[in-house]
């Protein structure tokens, strides 16, 4: 009697298994459509492994945007500080960024060689009022982005040097003239000593991670006679720090070797 019952149960399970497999196969077939062939046109745009990945954002039609919003010429510190604030926000969101460099309306973000992910975050509009208190935002700005991979430390350093040299050339041109001896003409005709111009204008802004010690106070359990007092606590954390310095040459990289250290 038990044998017969067991046989019936086995037959039932076997039949159910066959039906289930058929349903799953049918479901898989139905999940696809005749339009799915278009996926074959997708190109593999994965960045090469073990290379530095640089994402550079440039303002789109930014001359018009600057005119409409009354940017100060040749340099508007409000706009530059706003760009830096946005870049710091991006770095805080994406810890795979080891260094960033910005000038004018562009910023370059360098991702670790080992980085396997990337996403975007918009913050320019969000922080507008913090820097342009009396100037309403007439329309949102646009930015173009491009991704380039650099296979070695030297090519990465050369890329950042190129951007800083471009900053210097553009600022010198915007501040004065295209004549051969620009500094002399600036001083003699306009009484401008280019070397006294703010470093942010001449060098751009470098964003790096640095360890910072913070002292805070907190409530702790103390003896009755010391009740109500607080204790100072020191902690160390990584923060994004803006620098206005020369990154062309080896001095900067010797001072901050952790940037190119893959294990940092």
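-> sequence recovered:
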């Amino acid at each position: 009697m038990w044998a017969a019952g067991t046989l019936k149960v086995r037959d039932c399970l076997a039949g159910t298994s066959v039906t289930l497999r058929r349903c799953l196969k049918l479901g898989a077939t139905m999940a696809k459509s005749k339009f799915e062939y278009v996926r074959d046109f997708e190109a593999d745009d994965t960045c090469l492994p073990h290379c530095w990945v640089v994402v550079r954002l440039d303002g789109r039609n930014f001359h018009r945007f600057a005119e409409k919003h009354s940017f100060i010429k040749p340099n508007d510190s409000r706009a530059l500080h706003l760009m830096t604030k946005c870049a710091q926000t991006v770095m805080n969101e994406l810890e795979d960024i080891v260094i960033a460099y910005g000038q004018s309306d562009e910023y370059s973000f360098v991702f670790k060689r080992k980085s396997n992910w990337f996403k975007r975050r918009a913050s320019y509009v969000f922080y507008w009022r913090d820097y342009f208190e009396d100037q309403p935002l007439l329309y949102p700005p646009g930015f173009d982005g491009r991704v380039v991979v650099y296979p070695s430390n030297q090519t990465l350093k050369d890329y950042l040097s190129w951007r800083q040299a471009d900053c210097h050339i553009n600022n010198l041109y915007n501040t004065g003239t295209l004549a051969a001896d620009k500094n002399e003409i600036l001083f003699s005709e306009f009484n401008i000593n280019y070397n006294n111009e703010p470093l942010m204008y001449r060098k751009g802004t470098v964003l790096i991670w640095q360890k910072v010690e913070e002292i805070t106070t907190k409530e702790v359990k103390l003896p009755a006679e010391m009740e109500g007092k607080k204790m100072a606590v020191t902690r160390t954390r990584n923060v994004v720090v803006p620098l206005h310095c020369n990154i062309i040459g080896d001095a900067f990289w010797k001072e901050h070797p952790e940037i190119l250290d893959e294990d940092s």
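The chain has eight helices and six strands.
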